[in-house]
Amino acid sequence: MSEVRRFLGDARLVAARDLRIEFRSRVVVGQVVPFALLVLVLFGFALDADHRTLRTFASGLFWVAVLLSALLAVHRSAALEQSDGTLDALRMSGLPPAALFIGKATAVFVQLVVLEVVLLGGLLVLYGVQVVDPVLLVVAGLLAGVAVAAAGTLYGALASGLGVRETLLPILLLPVLAPVLIGATRAFDDALGAVAVDGWAWTGLLAVAALIATVVGALAHGVLIED
Amino acid sequence: MAGRDERPGTTGSRGSRLLGCVALASLVVLGVLAFFLTGPDVRIHPTTGEEFGQFDAVRMLYLHVPMAVLMYASFMLCAAASVGVLVKRTPWWDVMAHSTAEVGTVLCGLVLVTGSIWGRPVWNTWWEWGDVRLMTTLVLFLLFAGYLALRRTTTDPRRQERQAAVVALVAVLDIPLVNRSVAWWENRTLHQRSTLEELKIEDLTLFTLMFSFLTFGLVVWWLTLQRFRVGWLERAAIDHAVGSAIADRRSETSADELDAAIGVTDEQVGEASP
Amino acid sequence: MGDRYRGGVPVVELRGAVALLGNFPALAGVDLTVESGEVVLLRGPNGAGKTTLLRLCAGLIRPESGSVEVLGHDLVHERRSVRRRVALLGHSTGLYADLTVTQNVYFWARAAGLTVAEATQRVASALLRMGLSERLLGQPVHTLSAGQRRRASLAALVVRRPELWLLDEPHAGLDQSGRDVVDALVGDAVAAGATVLVSSHELERVAGLGPRVVTISGGVVVDDTGPADGGGPRV
Predict the structure, then answer these.
(1) Are A216 and B159 a contacting pair at CB < 8 A?
(2) What distance lies between CA A82 and its chain's CA centroid?
(3) What three-state secondary structure class fits C1?
(4) Domain segments of chain C: what residues?
(5) How many domains does chain A have?
């Protein structure tokens, strides 16, 4: 039991550190969130659309914006461990890699939730969508957030950990997240009343994806940051 | 990596040449079977008497289906080899994982292309976004394209073999999704549940299909073997370069230089260098 | 953390250690034994392999061949149990630029497994020992000078009370008082029974502690004066 408590304590330590760094540097709030809103606006320009078209595509555009912004957030999270020997220091600290993974993924998750909330506000205001099923919306949004944060943290460690080029992150991560994109979009379609699909079934898929990403990430993180 | 068996600078051997010839001959036989001996898929509607079916397009069966099955096989081998990398840490597994992933990705690309060509006459579209199997196969292709991109980022295989193994193991998680998608999302795919059940398959058609599995099995075996040997020679070349670099490094300690710099006698240098 | 090694027990034992950086053999077969309580000064020309040797002893690099034992553990298979007991001061600081000095040092103390109370107490005394003024402690690390950062990263190592110190050019880029702090730290460590491997161009600075001098060049040990005064310095 104390093993578990120690593990969670380590994870919390790391999550608190990452969030404290974000709180002090405001990179995600100051740069990533505005970027996400910008993407929403660009979709509006590009589709040259009236509210009806935008409402039809709202959930897809929302999740594409989330994924693109998540790439930045993940990159930022991974870059923290790249700066000035901090990764070596972490490896020397004896923190279990799984706890490190859970901590970092939690911090990314919190940032993604903030991002999703702001983007949702953008959808309501800019695209004029209406929320039909708020419970489904919240559950699907949180589960997809877990999946994106976990997979992103794992691949972020890969793409920054040992000198692999950073341009690799999108092409490795986005295909992995494709099922999450599909599931989250369908669930939001239902929650926003855009398309008649069974959103809860897709939310089940998101739950499975979140679980797999978290477990695989916790197991594999040590391999990626060690050597 | 001492004790590496030093092969001559070729990827061919008597066995693999024979295998290549047999595979080539089988391809010719398969061509004859598929294009001339088997008939087109023509069925007569029982009530109206109209002809329907896939006609000549059904011949794509002998390309598309064996390639898809062998793609699964290659990726599963890649997954197994990646587990080997993580557990054993020997270069054999890593070269194996790389080879099977590369062959599998080529097959995956061909499956997508042949599927698209087949889809045009049969489904009346090159590409169907709503088809889950098509989507999951595309994702699989992209995942392994990423894997191969990762493998190209450095010439030092030691550093990335374990990372690559993780990426491969994550990528193969998509395989059950591809394979089961037709059953799980029955109404979201144009793919048949199982070709063998749905198509009206005659004896010769069935034989040709089985023969195509065998033929492409041989081709894929040959390709993987060749790719493995290329990879193995690459590793041997790197090991050789490292080995001579170590020897150079040991002899780089010139006694004169050191004497000038720190005043060490030749005798001590001799003792300390093994 | 338990068992401290007493004199005569090897803390570091390298046999034929080869380490690669990419495909370049930075270490081409190093044999080196360091006993408990010794202070070993590593020297050699640039590119000799000093940094790689220290990183190898820290378990950050996997030996390509040969064996590496640190604190009685084989570093290939049991790195994790060793690392917490080893401190490596490299060329980088290991500090998060956006956090304050105190936040950084406290984080590393907690990461090393100290309880909140232990960490709080040790962080305060380590920061004091490193001579960082009260005013600096609340500032983000990126506003500090290189010398102040070096002190902060030393503080982050001191809190762990390591049994083996690996110091890579600890004096580089420090002013006089910074150098004195490093020397005092080595003195403290030795007094506490720790073992120190230090690479430095400044032989005379560490010579006061009567260290054994090991010269490496071309990735091998070319000269080893052996344990100074017979059994390593005891203060």
Answers:
(1) no
(2) 20
(3) coil
(4) 86-161
(5) 1
